[in-house]
Amino acid sequence: MSDADELDLSTLSDEELVEQMHDDLYDGMKAEIEVGTRLLLSRGWDAERVLNDALVAGMAIVGVDFRDGILFVPEVLQAANAMKGGMEILRPILAASDVEPIGKVVIGTVKGDVHDIGKNLVSMMLEGAGFEVIDIGINNSVEAYLAALEAHRPDILGLSALLTTTMPYMKVVIDTLKDKGLRDDYIVLVGGAPLNEAFGEAVGADAYCRDAAMAVETAKRLIAERRQAPALRKG
Ligand code: B1M
After folding, report:
1. Residue ranges, the chain, pLDDT below 50
2. Whose CA is nearest to atom 57 of ligand 1?
3. What pLDDT, on a 0 to 100 scale, did the predictor assign at position 59?
């Protein structure tokens, strides 16, 4: 039995609990993360605060030690799995929305890249803001994006990449849309930790989104702008 198993998380103050959750995330302890997430919610924390302060901040610590060679892929996978446990509890709260869908989004991580936590978060926040989201998962080829666009005819295509080696593939996707005369049919948003605004411009995206909140704000703004100028949109 580990120390955390013996520890009654409910006896901790909010601050201690968040700190403990960072440790539990680091150690890949999914059950403890689920208990901690529920506890913070029961103490009146809103879902976004739990997400940002307990889960995303904890994953940032994992990221630093992964970079520095202190943690390795198996440990980071366990941490990611624990994070997903917490996210699944928050998902229905973040995605709850009584609003009519304000637009449709197809989103996926690009070819060669299996990182999906950030993309999943963006999907949840977009759903919560009233978008219909079709998440096509990880490791998507141009063909997979094209098939999803054809099948779902969304307003927005969202591309995610977490690796410097996979981010150039975004340009491959966007260039293919251009070659096929489809580029103007969609708003293309890109995001992921190694990207920045200049990269978004360079690959021909409509916008780079720093985080999930910015993705929601940008999606709403660009859809509104496009609807005010319907003549620009191909039928
Ligand atoms: Co990977 N990994 N990883 N990894 N991993 C990073 C990205 C890295 C920065 C770690 C490091 O060195 N510090 C590094 C990349 C270095 C680089 O390219 N510059 C790295 C590496 C090197 C690798 C491998 C190559 C390691 C190896 O095998 N030697 C390998 C590659 C596998 C592959 O993809 N082919 C690998 C593998 C893995 C795991 C499988 C173990 C696991 C992924 C599990 C999973 O996702 N299911 C993993 C993880 C967890 C990470 C870190 C630790 C955490 C990523 C994360 O989930 N962050 C990461 C270090 C880090 O980023 N600090 C790292 C939390 C998430 C909420 O943030 O994803 O940035 P983020 O998403 C944000 C924004 O970026 C934005 O909004 C999100 C929410 O606010 N956003 C979008 C993201 N996508 C968007 C799309 C949009 C809009 C906004 O569309 C509209």
Report:
1. 1, 4, 234-235
2. 117
3. 87
How far is ligand 1, taken at its centre, from the CA of residue 193, in Å?
7
- Alpha-helical regions (H) of 68-196: 73-95, 117-128, 142-152, 169-179
For ligand 1, the distance from its centroid to the CA atom of residue 114, given in whole angstroms, is 8
CA of 218 to the centre of ligand 1 (A): 22
* Cβ of residue 60 lying under 6 Å from some atom of ligand 1: yes
> Which residue among 66, 73, 105, 120 has the greatest number of ligand 1 atoms within 8 angstroms of its CB, and so is best to mutate?
66
Residue closest by Cα to atom 18 of ligand 1: 163
Q: Taking Cα atoms as reference points, which of 129, 179, 138 lies closest to residue 156? A: 129
The residue from 99, 125, 158 where one domain ends is 99
Q: Does 115 lie in the same domain as 62?
A: no
- Tell me the pTM: 0.87
Residue 84 CA, closest ligand 1 atom number: 47
Report the distance separating Cα 202 and Cα 69, nearest Å: 32
Q: For the chain, what's the residue count? A: 235
- The answer to whether residues 163 and 209 belong to one domain is yes
Q: Is 125 in the pocket of ligand 1 (CB under 6 A)?
A: no
Residue 231: the pLDDT is 55
- Domain with 8, as residue range(s), is 1-99
Reading phi first (left if > 0) and then psi (alpha if -120 to 50, else beta), residue 209 is in beta
What is the Cα Rg of the chain in Å?
A: 19
Amino acid making up residue 97:
S
Contact 40, 92 (CB under 8 A): no
